[in-house]
Design a protein that fits this description.
Number of helices: 3
Helix content: 25-40%
Radius of gyration: 12 Å
Number of domains: 1
Distance between the termini: 12 Å
Largest sheet: 4 strands, mixed
Structural class: alpha+beta
Strand content: 25-35%
Amino acid sequence: MKRITIEGKTIENLYSFLKHTDADEIIIRTSRVRGCWYDNERDANAAGFHIRRFINLEYEARHEFAECYKISRK
């Protein structure tokens, strides 16, 4: 199972990104993905992934923006 965490990059098109990745699990801050929750949920599902929002405790402990997406292959 390949996991990646995306830090500095902004994803303009989530559907395209997911269709071209070989990762099984992706963690990314919600601020680094263009679009609203409903658009991102639709794109992830269409690309064959589950998506959920969560608060990353590591970021929160450093007093950084902590809302993230966990995107997992179905």
